[in-house]
């Protein structure tokens, strides 16, 4: 999967998806206004995924101060996402990745059909500022916005 990650500096693929709060969000909504972090994870309410999403929740003030909108992404449905978000008081939406199209576009769809764990930060201009397999904390991710 890591060989398939998009390169820093390249244009981020466009996406639009239903969210856990019942609205739609798209990358275009943020262009020129706000950076976007996409946190890809395999499944709702599993130990590793819960830790990843709760860390992003707990670091929310750092992301907010840097002007970064956060989204969890996997192919789970709205009800699954809503239940997961409510159970752990996640303060950001989870995107419903129908047919794993977003995961495929961002190079994180595994051969077994599951979404791999990866973190992307997209700057206000729509370019990839950070891309790494796995879950990563705010200090590391946000350094990319400051030319780190």
UniProtKB/TrEMBL annotation:
Record Pfam families: AhpC-TSA
Catalytic activity: a hydroperoxide + [thioredoxin]-dithiol = an alcohol + [thioredoxin]-disulfide + H2O
GO MF annotation: an example: thioredoxin peroxidase activity
Region spans: Disordered: 1-20
Keywords: Antioxidant, Disulfide bond, Oxidoreductase, Peroxidase, Redox-active center
Domain (Thioredoxin) ranges: 6-148
GO cellular component labels: cytoplasm
EC code(s) of this entry: 1.11.1.24
InterPro entries: AhpC/TSA (IPR000866), Peroxiredoxin_AhpC-typ (IPR024706), Peroxiredoxin_BCP/PrxQ (IPR050924), Thioredoxin-like_sf (IPR036249), Thioredoxin_domain (IPR013766)
Active-site residue list: 49
CDD domains according to UniProt: PRX_BCP (cd03017)
GO biological-process terms attached to the record: cell redox homeostasis; cellular response to oxidative stress
SUPFAM superfamilies assigned: Thioredoxin-like
Complex formation: Monomer.
Family: Belongs to the peroxiredoxin family. BCP/PrxQ subfamily.
PANTHER family xref list: AHPC_TSA FAMILY PROTEIN, THIOREDOXIN-DEPENDENT PEROXIDE REDUCTASE
Physiological role: Thiol-specific peroxidase that catalyzes the reduction of hydrogen peroxide and organic hydroperoxides to water and alcohols, respectively. Plays a role in cell protection against oxidative stress by detoxifying peroxides and as sensor of hydrogen peroxide-mediated signaling events.
Protein name: thioredoxin-dependent peroxiredoxin
Species, as recorded: Longimicrobium terrae
Upper lineage: Bacteria, Pseudomonadati, Gemmatimonadota, Longimicrobiia, Longimicrobiales
């Amino acid at each position: 999967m890591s060989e398939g990650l998009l390169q820093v500096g390249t244009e981020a693929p466009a996406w639009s998806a239903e969210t856990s709060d019942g609205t739609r969000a798209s990358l275009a909504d943020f262009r020129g206004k706000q950076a976007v972090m996409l946190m890809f994870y395999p499944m709702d309410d599993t130990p590793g995924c819960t830790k990843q999403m709760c860390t992003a929740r707990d670091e929310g003030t750092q992301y907010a101060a840097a002007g970064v909108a956060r989204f969890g992404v996997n192919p789970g449905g709205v009800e699954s996402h809503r239940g997961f978000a409510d159970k752990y008081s996640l303060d950001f939406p989870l995107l419903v990745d129908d047919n794993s199209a977003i995961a495929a576009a961002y190079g994180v769809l595994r051969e077994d059909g599951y979404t791999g764990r990866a973190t992307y930060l997209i700057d206000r201009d729509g370019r990839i500022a950070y891309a790494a397999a796995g879950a990563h904390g705010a200090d590391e991710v946000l350094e990319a916005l400051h030319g780190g």
